[in-house]
Amino acid sequence: MLERIKTTADYLSNQTELKPLVGIILGTGLGGLVSEIDIKQSISYEEIPDFPVSTVEGHSGRLIFGTINNIPVLAMQGRFHYYEGYSMQEVTFPVRVMKQMGIETLIVSNASGGLNPDYVVGDIMVINDHINMFGDNPLIGKNMNELGPRFPDMSEPYNNALIAKAMEIGRENDIDLKQGVYVGTTGPTFETPAEYKMFRVLGADAVGMSTVPEVIVARHMDMNCFGISIITDSGVPGQIVEVSHEEVQEVAATAEPKMTKVIKELVSRI
Ligand code: HPA
């Protein structure tokens, strides 16, 4: 695995002069940030040795090298989901490659179902903590001591300084940012009403099918993480209606400009 990480990182580093400082994972319907990147190089996942290939509609699968306000970034347009059948190691492989390339900060975005009754569809939530309900963990197995410790600390999964900066950006730009706990679950089913209720009781504000594995692996390697989620549907009792992937994509696309603004500003202030 270590060899694979190094081989892929070397391959990518050889494709471009750019030395990215920030890694960005763009979730469902949130690929529009790409238009804010001054693109230097774009590589399809299929071209990258050892890279998994994304299968879900709405995840186009490209690595984008470029700059945002002159800050060098590497953006993943499309991520790998556990529900697609990838192992936790495959889902998180790109994050390990990012770290190997010298990236110290990870920004992740996603779409989620709202559990907090104060949220409405289209809201943007800065993730301040998470609950792992995947029933799996990417760090199970022999620990790679070169990457991080056997028992990684998770007391600050999402970097407090980055959260504070994002909230400041929200205030300055009149963007209402919620802050809350994201619970990650395997999917691919959306939740039953009883499951939404359970996740609320457990202490979560939003539920989704990604992000948790990537952040675990990033924290293992001591990367600073920032997560942001668009509430695309409601899991609040009394407000639950039928939900489809298309609707999730649509709402995400509508709320995206605000999220893009926050990420763009945040990158400049890291
Ligand atoms: N549940 C799980 N994942 C999601 C949801 C949801 O309601 N909305 C978007 N991703």
What keyword list fits this structure?
alpha/beta; Rossmann fold; 270 residues; 9 strands; globular; binds hypoxanthine
The molecules bound to the chains, other than polymers, are:
hypoxanthine
The CATH superfamily title: Nucleoside phosphorylase domain
Just give the CATH class.
Alpha Beta
Helical segment count:
6
Rg calc: 17 Å
Proportion of beta-strand residues: 15-25%
Average residue pLDDT: 93
Helix/strand/pairing category = alpha/beta
Distance between the termini: 30 Å
Order of helix and strand elements from N to C terminus: HEEEEHEEHEHEHEH
The CATH architecture designation is: 3-Layer(aba) Sandwich
Would you identify the regions where 5 or more consecutive residues have pLDDT less than 50? Answer: none
Number of domains: 1
Q: Count of DSSP E strands?
A: 9
| Biggest sheet statistics | 5 strands, mixed, barrel
- Globular, elongated, flat, extended or rod-shaped: what is the shape? globular
CATH T-level topology: Rossmann fold
Written overview of the protein:
The chain is α/β, with parallel strands linked by helices and 270 residues long. It has a single domain (2-269), classed as Rossmann fold (3-Layer(aba) Sandwich). The chain contains 6 helices and 9 strands, in the order αββββαββαβαβαβα. The protein has helices spanning 2-15, 88-100, 160-172, 193-202, 212-220, 245-269, and strands spanning 22-26, 38-44, 62-68, 71-77, 105-114, 124-132, 177-184, 206-208, 224-234. Strands 5-8-7-6-9 form a 5-stranded mixed β-barrel, surrounded by 4 helices. Strand 6 (124-132), helix 3 and strand 7 (177-184) form a beta-alpha-beta unit. Helix 1 (2-15) crosses helix 2 (88-100), helix 2 crosses helix 5 (212-220) and helix 3 (160-172) crosses helix 6. The chain is globular, with a radius of gyration of 17 Å. The two termini are 30 Å apart. The structure holds hypoxanthine.
